[in-house]
Amino acid sequence: MKWITREHPKIDRIACPWLIKRFIDHDAEIIYVPFDQVLSKAAELGATPFDLPGVEYTHYDDQCSFDYFIKKYRLKDVALDRVAAIVRGADTDRHDFAPQSAGLEAIFSGLAYNIKDDHELLNLGMIIYDGLYSWAKHLHQVKHTQAGPVEQMLLDVYHKYLKESKSRKAPEWAKELKEMIQDQLDTNMSLSLQQVSGELDINPAYLSREFSKYFENLSFGEYIRKLRIEKAIHFIETSAYSLTEVAYLTGFSDQSHFTRIFKKQTGQTPMAYKKALKSKKDTNS
C-alpha cells in the first residue's frame, strides 16, 4: 500500500511511517511530495494521504496523526501509548505531555536541518523510533543504564553517525545540539536542576541551596559529574570499550572534556587509570 504526505518531514511524518511499516503494513511505500501536490499525487498514484488538513489520517483536537493511526487500527500496546505521548508532545509543542518530547523535537529538528533527503532522514528516523519503542516497552522504568540494548544503540549511533561526522566540519547547530544533549545521553543522569525542582514542586533556588546538605556536600552539578565518573570507572574496569566510547556513554561532549573531569575527580587521566588497572591485573595473573 502507498502512503503519501508533505515533504520535509520532522516528527509526526517520520513517526507515522515508522508505525505503518512496523505495525500496519510492513511493505508500505512512503511518498513525500510538496504540500500543494499531496492530494493530486495521491489520486494519481492510488496512495492514502496522511498528516494533512482535511484528510482522514490527520490531527484531531490535541492529538496528532500518530494518535489517529493507533486508534484507527486498534493497536493495543502500552509501549505505543508511551511513544504516542512523546510524539504528540514534540509535534504539537506541548512538552507537558511527556518529559522526553523536548529531546525528541530537538533531535529531529537538528537532523531535519542537516539531512535534506527525506528518505535518508526516514531511514535514520526508523532506527531512532525503534530505539524509542524498545525503551518504552522494556526500559522506561530502568533507573541505571546497564550493558544492553540502549547502551548498544548509543554505540551504534556513535560509530555509524556521530564518529563519521567528525571528519566533516560541524555546523553551528550541531555544536549547540551537542551541548544540549550532553546531559541526555545516559538516561539516569539526564536530570537538570530545573527538571528536578519542577517534579518535586520545590523552588529551584531553595533546592540548589539545600542540595549539598544531603548529597555529600556537593552541588547538583558536582554530584552528577561524580556519578558520571563513577560510571566511567565501572566501564573501564568491566568492559572492553575504548575511552572514547566510555566518554560518549557517560554523557561527555568529547574525550578532552571527559579527560579533564576524570582527572579532576580521580587525580589521574583515564588512560593512566586504565594502564594502572592493566598493570595490576598482569601482576596478579
Characterization of the model:
The chain is mainly α and 285 residues long. It folds into two domains: 141 residues, no CATH class; 101 residues, Orthogonal Bundle (Arc Repressor Mutant, subunit A), CATH 1.10.10. 62% of the residues lie in helices and 4% in strands. It has 14 helices and three strands. A three-stranded parallel beta sheet has the order 2-1-3, with helices on one face. Helix 1 packs parallel to helix 3 and helix 5 packs antiparallel against helix 8. The protein is elongated. About 6% of the residues have low confidence.
Q: How far apart are the termini? A: 62 Å
Figure out the total of helices.
14
How are strands sequenced across the largest beta sheet?
Answer: 2-1-3
Query: Can you give the helix content as a percent range?
Result: 55-70%
Shape annotation: elongated
β-strand amount: under 5%
Biggest sheet record: 3 strands, parallel
Mean pLDDT: 82
Q: Structural class per helix/strand content?
A: mainly alpha
Total beta strand runs: 3
Query: What is the chain-wise order of helices and strands?
Result: EHEHEHHHHHHHHHHHH
Radius of gyration from CA coordinates = 22 Å
Low-confidence stretches: 173-188
Total number of domains: 2
